[in-house]
Amino acid sequence: MSGPGPTEPPHEPTPGPSAERPHEPPRKPGAGGPGPEQPGHPPGAAGGPAPDRPEAGERVPDPARPPAETDAPADASGGAPPPEAPAAVPPPEPARRLSALTMVTAPIAYLRNFLVPVVIALVAGTYSVNPWVLGSTGAAIVAMLVGGLVTWRTFRYQVSADRLEIRRGLISRSRRSIPLERIRGVDITATLLHRVLGLAVVRVEAAAGGEASEEGKLDAVTAAEAERLRRVLLHRRAVLRGESAAPAGAPVLAEGAAVAEGAAAGAPGAPAAAPAGTAPGDDGDGDADTETYFTMPLSWYFYAVLSLAYLLTPFAALAAVSGVVSQGLGDAAAERSVQDAGELARDLYLRTSEGGTLLLVLIAVALLLVVLAAMPVFAVVSYAIAHWQFTLRRRGHALVTERGLFTRQSVTLELRRIRGHELWDNPLERLRRVVRLRAVVTGLGQTATRAALLPMGPRATVESVVERALLPFTGPLLRHPRAALGRRLFRAVAPFAAAAAVAAFTAPTWVAVALGVLALLGVPLGVDRYRNLGHGADAHQVSVRSGSLHREQSVVHREAIIGWKWQQSLFQRRTDLVNLQLAVGAGPGGYTAIDADMAESVAFAEGVTPDMVRPFVVREPAADPAPPRG
Known about the structure:
flat, six-stranded antiparallel beta sheet, 19 strands, seven-stranded antiparallel beta sheet, alpha+beta
């Protein structure tokens, strides 16, 4: 399926001082690489002896100036030394302990896990005055307190030059070593107890197979120490990776990706530059390099009534209560004989047949009305607990989200790891033009919660935040062929129509009518699914949209696409449709343009990544011109 592409030189010429490599930002003074007047190796560096006299363009040390000003290499504009020069790795820190208040939080954590058995033992021991039960319960509580003391005395953590070392245990000792350059993120959480005591939990996510056991957890340190650890770990990781700050005013698209053409300092969507010497992910020394993009207003909590998941919260609570009650009734019935259970069932039947049916119906209706009235209240309350004071801000070269009422969670997402964003909603949210925002991040677990950048909110506000914090998508979405409409209608209508036809002969009439109504409702659903299909591209990003009950528009950077996949079913071949998947090394791993035109999808992929697709495209040879008539 391959054909000769356009002729290209076998070797790419090395760019000169004023040339730019493809997909690379213009080099600025001090922004990377030896300058046009600098040698490849500084004098005295490995790879060659130091010259006896300065080369052309090399600064001559001035004996009248201090060594700190003369020994530092600079480029022609007198800027900072090139990032290729090995950065000084900070010295290792001394080993530290957790906060002394761990002796309070650790026993409470142990007690929470064994709360039910301990309460049952205490109640049973008090009721029957059993000294063995009371004594064993007291011994268990004392053991939990001793466990907290042992945890505080034996737990040590140390930030060395290139690793985070965690040691713990008295009898069974463990030692965990996490390379700093493989750290993916540092999250800070604080439960209600931790916040009362001024503590926090630091979770370090490392690229070590994705197992939860490979992550480091420090529970609990002071809130100030947690913030300091986050800054230190991210800064040292950046130093070990040799990363440098992005050019001033340029949006960071991806690691090694091109800077958007025409982006200027202060332009919308371009994060402000970090201070000089600040590495990506480092937040600086304070709030000087912090910008708040969003703080959740009070009116946003009422959007919870548009989410079906939060509206069903009362039913989940009712199911839990019903489970407890049924378990208690089952235990009570088990204490009686089979004959007593039969007599109880017979009495209940007689009471119901004598007029209790109406009472039961009224109770059920009243209970249903109470639950329906409580649905919006429960939705708003549960939503507020989860997203209380949701905040999105930029710290250095990272986006930080904070939320939660009882458990406060802080998630740090590096801009260099963000490969795009997702906007998703449901039909109720679309009626109010409400949408949610989530980042497409590489190497992030639990993306449903940790990658959330904004909760439900007005689309105009969300898009303005995307314009300021990320990179907005400005291209149009191509409409899919009309054949895709037929497939959407068939999938939404045919199953219920077939079931209604079968139920008309084998089931009660109301069942067939209900299935027929569902088949009719499938028509607008199929039309809406077709209208929401689309894919497109602008100068820097690619977007794919699909879905109706859960509509999602995904936007990813061009540089993040690592492959394309065309997939056709037997029915798609008849209409020349195809599912085009964009393979991305972030988020779920790929995004699919459903039922796109085959020829158009190939041209689309070739236009986005020509070097990747062009070698596999077979073009029809041009027809030879007809010979002139003699």
